[in-house]
Amino acid sequence: MTLRLGDIAPDFEQASSDGNIRFHDWLGNSWGVLFSHPADFTPVCTTELGLTAKLKDEFARRNVKVIALSVDPVASHLEWIKDINDTQGTTVNFPIIADADRKVSELYDLIHPNASSTHTVRSVFVIDPEKKIRLTLTYPASTGRNFNELLRVIDSLQLTEYHSVATPANWQQGDEVVIVPSLQDEELIRQKFPKGYRALRPYLRLTPPPV
Fold first, then answer.
1. By its UniProt entry, which Pfam families does this protein fall under (predicted)?
2. CB–CB of 64/99 below 8 Å?
3. Burial level of 28, CB count in 10 A (0-12/13-18/19+)?
């Protein structure tokens, strides 16, 4: 199953390190990040899960729930969590889905045979409160994910969801944003962007962030 941006994230019920998870119910009205790992006790993923735990307040501030997945069973997850807490100096504070039957992996197309016929690839899905997929990223096993970039993209998605703007290259929170080309009513533009804007081209109008 190939998932595309705008698709509804597949629902599922599966065991996890925090008990049984019914995914859509667990998400509730929050944004969500689902990220997969090839297996337990893998070095790069150990650092990623530790960093995720340390970023708990950053995710919470953005109304984001985080959930991980590995193809190993719950008992293995619980042992791995001990290693993560010890080696990364943190406490894992989010569930890790146990996907030994590959049910969730198949729903989210996480088994890529050219990479591994048994282990999941290291993918990220950002899901909005309507359960729509808003971002997908897939990394090779050798490269750790950039969590600064993940938070940056979530900031952009949330800003552009609720305002008539897009974010330019390398945008960071607080930088100028782009007024979407579809917005042409000058009176409405003045209402939405009271700080004004500068037009480099008719289609490229930059304005201070609306929030």
1. 1-cysPrx_C (PF10417), AhpC-TSA (PF00578)
2. no
3. exposed
- pLDDT for 56-97, tens place per residue? 999 999 999 999 999 899 999 999 999 999 999 999 999 999
What integer pLDDT is reported at residue 112 of this predicted model?
Answer: 55
Q: Which of 134, 139, 136 is nearest to 120 (CA)?
A: 139
Q: Which residues, 6 or more positions from 82, have their beta carbon under 8 angstroms from its beta carbon?
A: none
Kindly tell me if the per-residue pLDDT of 117 is higher than 70. no
Q: What are phi and psi of 56, to 5 degrees?
A: -50, -45
* Mean pLDDT on 116-134: 82
DSSP E strand stretches across the chain: 13-14, 21-22, 31-37, 64-70, 96-98, 122-127, 133-139, 165-166, 177-179, 198-201, 204-207
Report how far residue 92's alpha carbon sits from residue 52's, in angstroms, rounded to the nearest whole number.
8
* Antiparallel, parallel or unpaired: β 122-127 and 13-14: unpaired
pTM for the complete prediction?
A: 0.91
Alpha carbon distance 6, 109 (integer Å) = 16
Lookup: tokens for 108: 């989210």
Beta bridge partners of 70: 37, 98
> Which residues have C-beta within 8 Å of that of residue 158, sequence separation ≥ 6?
31, 62
Residue by residue, DSSP assigns 137-186 as EEE-TTS---HHHHHHHHHHHHHHHHSSEE--TT--TTS-EEEPTT---H
What tokens were used for 8? 């509804």
